[in-house]
Amino acid sequence: MKNSALLTDRYDPLEKVFFFDDFDHGLNGWTGLIGNYEDSLESVLPEFRDLRPPQLSNLTMWDTGTAGSAFGTYALKLATRPRLGSLAVGIKRQTFRHAARLRLEAYLTFKPEASQLRLSALDVRAFGVAFDLQDGYGQADGLRWMPHLRYLNAQAGERQGRWQFKAQTRPLTDIGGTGETQSHFHLGPEGWQDVPNAQQLTCYNEITTKMNWSYLRVGLDLHTRTITDFQFDDHVFSGEGLGVITLPAMRNLWCMLNTLFFVETDTDQRAFLYVDSVLLSGEGA
Amino acid sequence: MPHLAESHTLVIERNTRWEGEFATEPAETAWAREAIFFVRALQLEGALAAARVRVQLSPDGMHWADEGTLCPLPGAPGGLTFCRLTHFGGWLRLVGSLPAGTQLRVIVYLNLKG
After folding, report:
1. Residue A209 falls within a domain, yes or no?
2. Looking at the domain assignment, is residue B1 inside a domain?
3. Which tops the pLDDT comparison, A177 or A6?
4. Rounded distance, CA A237 to CA A261, Å?
5. Residues of chain A positioned with their CB less than 8 A from the CB of B30
6. What is the mean pLDDT of the segment spanning B28-51?
7. Total structural domains in chain B?
8. For residue A59, is it within any domain?
9. Which tens digit of pLDDT belongs to each residue from A15-43?
């Protein structure tokens, strides 16, 4: 492990570390998300066409200069366009070796662009984390399932400050004319439900250029296809009753284990999500 | 074993329609020492005339100044142009304007290395 002290001091991983990315040496496989297409980019579902990709940022602010990341110089940065509802998504695509309990941990912070000299605490609509998994190869109950969690910070200029999950996606749409490609947009604003005891006011320091890094932990169980629990700073939430999106298994996604972070703006200002670092661990065989 | 440079290609615009005044989204480049902007035309309506795009630098991602490089635009669908850059600091973007009635649909890559 490239930095075992950082790992054990800052994280509580399960037995096997699947990845540990601190973004001081590149994006480590985190890339942008695009919808499926055939022949032309015009065939991409509209909502999937302009999801903004991750970059490496050293958190340089116009008023205080470079802050650096939580544990080094660089962080993964997601930046929306300055357009209401714009989304930025970073995804890392892997597979799993066996059904197990998994634990995702990360340090992250969110802010709007500091283009106005005011608090702007309600400019960011939401940030979140999602997974895209498929298991059950060769079994009758093979399933694609997609746990989604988001922190709804603000909506239409009103403070929300609550955690939500999503158990529904839009119908699969055929893309192109071959019958081999389908797509569904799962990050739309509809269908989000509050988790029990959803309320949490996160640390939002007084101006847009002060970032405080928060701890996020999400537990998954690949046996039961559930979110077991999650934690953000000092708040721990039960996974009980948190539904996940499910779809019939697709013929070519076996053992998929994708992890996504996303951020969405609630105004015509850019919203930023910084992640430094992120660790996925799981039970051993 | 030689030290291998970090390298990253950012798709800063994808199937984006340019018309009138335009600017690419800000790209963070603090870690990189050299860059190449590539502009590939997917569709063109109207005439480009002598339209060029200007490279701009920024200290904060919000306030921009011309770097001095002019990048040509591809004059037909499928065309690809580029400009090479060094010593650019923390942010880069392209800005430009197209003649009235002209629309150019582009994919813009920013290849960074450092």
Report:
1. yes
2. no
3. A177
4. 19
5. 56-58, 60, 66, 74
6. 95
7. 1
8. yes
9. 999 999 999 999 999 999 999 999 899 99
Chain B positions touching chain A (beta carbons under 8 Å): 6, 8, 10-11, 14-16, 25-28, 30-31, 42, 59-63, 90
- The enclosing domain of B76 has a CATH number of 2.60.120.260
User: Taking CB atoms and an 8 Å cutoff, what residues of chain B touch A34?
Assistant: 14
What are the distances in angstroms from CA A22 to CA A7, A127, A175? Answer: 10, 19, 36
* Number of domains chain A contains: 1
Domain presence at residue B4: no
Q: Does residue A252 form part of some domain?
A: yes
A237, A129 Cβ separation under 8 angstroms: no
Tell me which residue range forms the domain holding A76.
14-282
Q: pLDDT for A52-70, tens place per residue? A: 999 999 999 999 999 999 9
Q: Give residue A2's pLDDT.
A: 52
pLDDT confidence tier of residue A283, bands split at 50, 70 and 90:
very high
Computed over every residue of chain A, the mean pLDDT equals 94
Residue B11 lies in a domain: no
In chain B, whose CA is at the least distance from the CA of A269?
B62
Minimum Cα–Cα distance from A74: chain B residue: B31
Q: Is A75 helix (H, G, I), strand (E, B) or coil?
A: strand
Q: Is residue B55 part of a domain?
A: yes
Domain range enclosing B55? 17-113
Please answer yes or no on whether A53 and B10 come within 8 Å at the CB atom: yes
A115-158: pLDDT as tens digits: 988 888 999 999 999 999 999 998 989 999 999 999 999 999 99
Cβ-Cβ contacts under 8 Å for B23 (sequence gap 6 or more): B56, B93, B94, B95, B96
Nearest CA in chain B to A43: B15
Report the CATH number that the domain containing residue A211 is assigned in CATH.
2.60.120.260
Q: Amino acid identity of A85?
A: G
The strand pair at A101-112 and A226-232 is best described as: unpaired
User: For chain B, how big is the Rg over CA atoms in Å?
Assistant: 14
